[in-house]
Design a protein that fits this description.
Mean pLDDT: 83
Number of helices: 6
Helix content: 55-70%
Number of domains: 2
Oligomer: single chain
CATH superfamily of the largest domain: Glutaredoxin
CATH class of the largest domain: Alpha Beta
Shape: elongated
Strand order of the largest sheet: 4-3-5-6
Structural class: alpha+beta
Strand content: 5-15%
Number of strands: 6
CATH architecture of the largest domain: 3-Layer(aba) Sandwich
CATH topology of the largest domain: Glutaredoxin
Radius of gyration: 32 Å
Distance between the termini: 112 Å
Length: 221
């Protein structure tokens, strides 16, 4: 009994870190797990080179779709790590690992489809309304420029792919609800017309019969 209890406690302790630190983002009603910058570096086995990095609501999200043991993904992380001391105030990393999470693959495909592009390689990076497929050091200047330019835009006016996807779904749902209301209005209108036609026919036939009876009575007289 004690041995069983000890095993349960150990298993619970092993599960606690995952449950406590797992982060989720909701897109189109579904939740997806992601890691932040420090967690992603740790997962990739990269030692932090910065000392003062902190996440804030004002930072620009860098959405990264990556795979464990993907060398190009790791090179991109090295680039962020090397520049975090200077540019860390501009960004926060939202990293989706796709090799071990099929849901994150589908999220990547959805995001790419929403942007009218094809996600055919990783790392797949989205910053504001810009994206980068794969990684090579020739991208560095463009990434910094997009990052700083997006940061200079007020938070409420920035393009955020997942926020846009959620708003688009809400709009489609609203349109769908409006269409349903329109159908109900149309059905009510049709039923009303049918009722009016039936009522008019009924009254017309009743009047016709009344006139015929009156005419017959006059003939008899």
């Amino acid at each position: 009994m004690k041995r069983l209890l000890r095993m349960i406690i150990i298993m619970t302790m092993l599960l606690l870190p995952f449950n406590a630190y797992a982060k989720e983002i909701e897109v189109n009603g579904k939740k997806y797990q992601y890691s932040n910058f420090k967690e992603t570096l740790k997962e990739a086995g990269i030692e932090e080179k910065f000392t003062s990095y902190e996440e804030t609501d004002n930072q620009v999200p860098i959405y990264l779709f990556r795979g464990d043991n993907c060398e190009y993904c790791k090179e991109f992380l090295y680039f962020l790590n090397d520049n975090a001391e200077e540019y860390g105030k501009y960004f926060k990393l939202v990293s989706f690992e796709i090799y071990s999470d099929n849901k994150n693959i589908k999220l990547m495909e959805k995001a790419a489809e929403f942007m009218n592009i094809k996600a055919d390689g990783i790392p797949f990076v989205i910053i504001g309304n810009e994206y980068f497929k794969g990684y090579e050091d020739t991208y560095n200047e463009d990434i910094i420029n997009v990052l700083t330019k997006t940061y200079e835009t007020s938070v409420n006016e920035r393009t955020d792919i997942f926020k846009s996807m959620n708003e688009d779904e809400s709009l489609n749902k609203k349109i769908s609800d409006d269409e349903k209301m329109l159908l109900w209005d149309l059905l009510f209108f049709v039923i009303s017309i049918v009722f009016v036609i039936f009522y008019v026919n009924y009254k017309t036939n009743s009047l016709k019969k009344m006139l015929e009876n009156d005419l017959d009575n006059k003939k008899r007289k």
